[in-house]
Each structure stands twice: as structure tokens, then as C-alpha cells.
């Protein structure tokens, strides 16, 4: 049985989609997640739904080469979603499932892959998937950069984060002081 997965990230939202048989699943993820994490989450969702499937021979298709490579990389195994995928894959294989992962090029007219892409981009149910450390760190750094730009501080300034961070922390304490008054 073919299963197509995709992840998507725009300025406003992050999502993932999974297509198998006549079923299309779509989830909105945490906005601080990377597209890489969204792609991995789509693969995880696919495996979770395979677990309750009658089909024993499955082909999971993704247009994310980085997601596929991460499943074979020792360094990427620190990513929590990669760990979950690998654990679930082993569980499925012990139960007699035969799972093969394939890369497919994106946006070349493969119907089910396009459906997975559309599902990942659509407004959908919110999925409570934890945000990994690297995604959270990147999100915080982006916020600090935007805040610095508002203050007119260039990113090339010496000790950029050292300069901005006390300002952000000071704002937090001012807000807490106002709330407690």
C-alpha cells in the first residue's frame, strides 16, 4: 500500500499531511517547528496509522530527502521525532509489517504526493507534537533578530545577543511588575 507524506512551513503556520488509500490526514503543528520537523512528523503520523492497518506491505513516500537521510544518520537520532519513528518502525517490523521508504520529487504531478502537499498546507486539526530543542532555539533567535531590528541594532554588532537579551528580560520584568501591581 502506498502512503504519501509531506510537511509544510509558511510565515503563518506549519503543517503536515498524509495520504493513503482514500484517506487524507492533515494537521497543524506548532508554529516554531521547522519544515524538517514537519516532514518527520508526517512520516510518524503515517506509521501510527499503519499500525492499525490490515496492509502488511507498505511504501512510505516523501519528497524530503533530508527526512529520509535522518532516519539513517547517527547524529540525527537525537531529534525526538526521528527517535519515535525508528522505535515505531521496529515495533511494526516485529509485528510482521514490511515498510520501505522512498523519495519522490515534489511538485511534479504525482497525484497522491500533491494531495499530501495540499493537506500539509491546509487549515486543519491542531496536533500537539513537542517542539525539539533546535527548532525552539531557531525560533527564539529569529524573535531576537526581529526585536533587534525594531531597536535599530544591526546583527553585525558586537555581542548582538548579549545586548538584546537584557532588554528582552527587562521588558518581561516590567510586564510582571505591572501585572502584580
Automatic annotation (TrEMBL):
GO terms for molecular function: metal ion binding; nucleic acid binding; RNA-DNA hybrid ribonuclease activity. Keywords: Endonuclease, Hydrolase, Metal-binding, Nuclease. InterPro entries: RNase_H, RNaseH-like_sf, RNaseH_domain, RNaseH_sf. Its EC number is 3.1.26.4. The keyword Zinc-finger does not apply. This is ribonuclease H. It comes from the Eukaryota. It catalyses: Endonucleolytic cleavage to 5'-phosphomonoester. Residues 1-125 form the RNase H type-1 domain. Gene3D superfamilies: Ribonuclease H-like superfamily/Ribonuclease H (3.30.420.10). One of its GO terms (biological process) is DNA replication, removal of RNA primer. Belongs to the RNase H family.
Amino acid at each position: 500500500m502506498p502512503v504519501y507524506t509531506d510537511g509544510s512551513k509558511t510565515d503563518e503556520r506549519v503543517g503536515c499531511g498524509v495520504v493513503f488509500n482514500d484517506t487524507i490526514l492533515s494537521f497543524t503543528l506548532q508554529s516554531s517547528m521547522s519544515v524538517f520537523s514537519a516532514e518527520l512528523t508526517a512520516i510518524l503520523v503515517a506509521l501510527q496509522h499503519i499500525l492499525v492497518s490490515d496492509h502488511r506491505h507498505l511504501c512510505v513516500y516523501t519528497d524530503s530527502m533530508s527526512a529520509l537521510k535522518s532516519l539513517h544518520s547517527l547524529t540525527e537520532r537525537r531529534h525526538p521525532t526521528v527517535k519515535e519513528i525508528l522505535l515505531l518502525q521496529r515495533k511494526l517490523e516485529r509485528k510482521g509489517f514490511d515498510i520501505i521508504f522512498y523519495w519522490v520529487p515534489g511538485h511534479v504531478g504525482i497525484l497522491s504526493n500533491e494531495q499530501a502537499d495540499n493537506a500539509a498546507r491546509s487549515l486543519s486539526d491542531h496536533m500537539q507534537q513537542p517542539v525539539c530543542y533546535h527548532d525552539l532555539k531557531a525560533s527564539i533567535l529569529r524573535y531576537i533578530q526581529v526585536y533587534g531590528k525594531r531597536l535599530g541594532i544591526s546583527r553585525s554588532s558586537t555581542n548582538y545577543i548579549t545586548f538584546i537579551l537584557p532588554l528582552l528580560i527587562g521588558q518581561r520584568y516590567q510586564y510582571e511588575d505591572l501585572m502584580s501591581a
